[in-house]
Write a structure and sequence with these properties.
Largest sheet of chain A: 3 strands, antiparallel
Largest sheet of chain B: 6 strands, mixed, barrel
Helix content of chain B: 40-55%
Largest interface: A-B, 18 and 24 residues
CATH topology of chain A: Arc Repressor Mutant, subunit A
Oligomer: heterodimer
Strand order of the largest sheet of chain A: 1-3-2
Low-confidence stretches of chain A: none
Low-confidence stretches of chain B: none
Number of helices of chain B: 25
Shape of chain A: globular
Radius of gyration of chain B: 36 Å
Radius of gyration of chain A: 16 Å
Number of helices of chain A: 4
Mean pLDDT of chain A: 84
Mean pLDDT of chain B: 88
CATH class of chain A: Mainly Alpha
Strand content of chain B: 5-15%
Number of domains of chain A: 1
Number of domains of chain B: 4
Chain lengths: 112, 869
Amino acid sequence: MAPMSPQAFHILVALAERDQHGYGIMRDIAERTGGKLRLSAGTLYGSIKRLLEDGLIVELGERDRPDRDGGDERRRYYRLTALGRKTAKAEARRMAELVEHARAHGLAAGAR
Amino acid sequence: MDWPRAHARLFRALLYCYPAEFRHEYGGEMERLFEDRLREEPRWRLWRDAVADLAFSAPREHASLLASDLRYAARTLAAAPAFAAMALLITALGIGATVSVFSVVNAVLLRSLPYGHPGRLVYLFSPNRNFQGVPEELGPNIPDFYDWQRLSHGFSQMTLLRPAQLNLVEGGESARVDGAFVAGNFFRTLEVRAWLGRTIGDGDDRPGHELVAVISGALWRSRFGSDPRIVGRRIQLNRRLYTIVGVMPEEFGYPFDGDIPYESSATGRTDVWLPAAYTAAEKADRVNFESADAIGRLRDGVPAPAAEAELAAIEKNLQPRYAAMWRGFSAMVRPVVETIIGPVEKMLWLLLGAIGIVLLIAVANVANLLLARAAGRGHEMGIRTALGAGRGRLVRQMLTESLLVSLVGGALGVALAYAAVRVLTRLNPGGIPRFDSAGVDGRVLLVALALSIGAGLAAGMAPALAASRASVNELLKSGGTRIAGPMHRGRFALIVAEVALSVVLVTASTLLIRSYLALTAVQPGFSPATLTFQVRLDDRYSTPALQAGFERRFLEKLKSLAGAGAVGASSSTPLSKHESVTFAEIRGFGRAPSAIENYSVTPDYRKALGVPLLAGRDFDARDTGTPVVIVNREFAQAYFAGRNPLGGEIRSGVGDLSAAPWLRVVGVIAGIRHNALDEPSLPLIWQPADEADRFALECRAPAGVLAGRARAALRSLDPVLTLDDVRTMRQRMGESSARRRFQTTLLTGFAALAVALALSGLYALMAFSVRQRRQEIGVRIALGASRGRVVGMILSQGLRMTAWGLVIGLAASFAATRLIAAWLFGVRATDPVSFAAVPLFVAAVACCACIAPAWNAARIRPMEALRQE
């Protein structure tokens, strides 16, 4: 399987904690990256569409929508699937290993 | 104040850049996201992000949709290999053939000539208003040219050239090459540079400095082994030693055969350029003057008519310097590009138009196949619609399929064209400039791509719309058979169109074939078996006496050759692109209103050429120098109408004839097609001579053997000279009709292709229709319809389409054949035989296409057909 795009990975991470709608995902990512990565609509929903097609996330039906923070009726909410969680973990591991390698060669801070 | 609503509305409009499906699914969400950010973020950053995002993600969504459509299309095509193969074959044939013809059009008409700014180059002619019947495209007289050059202002350059055949002696072998003597500014005028060394320059055309030569890239390769140190080498041309100063680029070979009106070359291109060095006396001599071909480069902003008016005014002032009989020269300026391609332009566009029709038929055929398939896929479409695929989505899917077919077919077609162009260039009829350079280049590929896309869209549009129009309910209920109705009408119309288009092509090619047959039946006025050739003497034979002496000796040698019958010589051979005209006055008639052909011939020439003698006698050896003349039938009919031409008197020459001697007519010969087989014989006179440089031999041995013996005879007299232009008259007739044969062959091939495509379409539709109506036919048979009746029913269905196609096609032909009227010979554009034969032929082959499906229909067993219900 081809490596996951950074946007897709960010979306999976944003959904790992709780089910969210598109705007929530976008804000989550923006906060986490200190405002450096702000997904615009086309890229965000393009990625969501592919994640849906690959079965890594699902869209929530009416009943499953969270009520907290006044869950907006009109919005679509997404949830990480088991496969999505597994895939995100594998991707995280791959990236961690990559960072390890970089560290071993003095390319990244925080040597053991 | 800011307008959040306006921002949101603008964003919503931009969403139309995305595929409809994506927009419907996520458009609302995307808008909301945008509005959320609108509340929190600075506008400039929001828009910067949004535009960048759109530029990246919209194409990406389209591409991903296309990829999935292509995958789906490839899968469905792979599942129907017979359909796919058929559609690909038809598309490849249609596009391949069109691209091949286009590559010729591209080479001859569209690719710019290899000269700088060819649009500003003009030919300078000097017609004489007193020379009736003489072509207007005559080069200027040399003294006039130099005065034009000195006195005119409308040209930035003006140069002259004189094509000539040169005898090249290299490594002990002598060979004939086509060359041109050119003024020092020739290459500057054409704006071309040497590839190696330099071109002929301003100093080279002064007498005493003219022994330099520029050779073509082709000659450099073939004769000099691409020697990089060729510059400075000396070569022997026409017994003089020239120093090679430069080699031209490969594509430069001006003048090519056909580039200059009324000039012809043996090899088709020019290989050697030498300076034309005229002395000051020659540049001013209006008593013994020669003419040459002239080219001018118009100054920017000067139109050709203005330049022509200027030269004509200059020329008018020069007339008093001529003797009275010559006066009347003027000036004519014609664009070089138009002059070169003019004679073949119409023919090539015609061929391109014809092949365009074939392509249209091919497209209709593919559309037909797609329609038939769509009918079979009604159920699939119904299910996809039921699953939520929009109408636009289905159209897009169907178009992707037909585009996939047309693009792959187009690629195959280009591969086909690579091979076909090679065959086409081998059919070169001669006289079409740069025909040989036809090939597949960038522009041809671009056209192939455009044609493929156009063909895909055209073929896919009808089935796509038909399929998407059907309602889900009906589709699912009927299992797809219901959409056969509207589709059937579409297919009916397509077949009618195909038949109509092919009728146009068949009619046109029938007319051309009948013209060609009429041409081959022409009585040329000479015997096709006669062997002819020419001997060009070089500078050693510097006086008329030396030339005449040699020619007489050679003629005697030829007469003694084994296998030679009558042997003669003349100043011109028929169909050799060479003619000579003069003016005449006839006692009892007055001055002939138009120029007449005028040749000198030796006593046995008539017998050697096989021209029938209608009255009187041949020349004999005592006639030379005496005032006798032989005329042809056309002359006798025009100027001795109602009188006996024998004993009649003629005097001939240019200008004032009052001092010319009267010549007595001693014989009348048949008409001779001197210039072309399809041009009528003109009034002609023969004057007696002892010798001439063009020979004719009546063959009593094979022509090839006799030519060998003639060569040996020439060698025994002078080992340096060569026999030139060796051809039987039959070969000359073949060359004279080559262009006609070329266009007839191609057009007939296209017509055959068109008929094959149209009829395979008809066959496919009939076979399909019989399959669809299986149950209905089964019921009819069960109810007592005889097999003959079933056959008749299916046949009449097919023939009804054919009849409609014939009616429309014949009406269109009636209009279209006017376009080819100029190429017809011996038949009229409304030739009743052709217009009767074509419908019969088309109806007959249409019957053949329908008979198998009709037969299958008749063999349907009612029980089996009904059981399938």
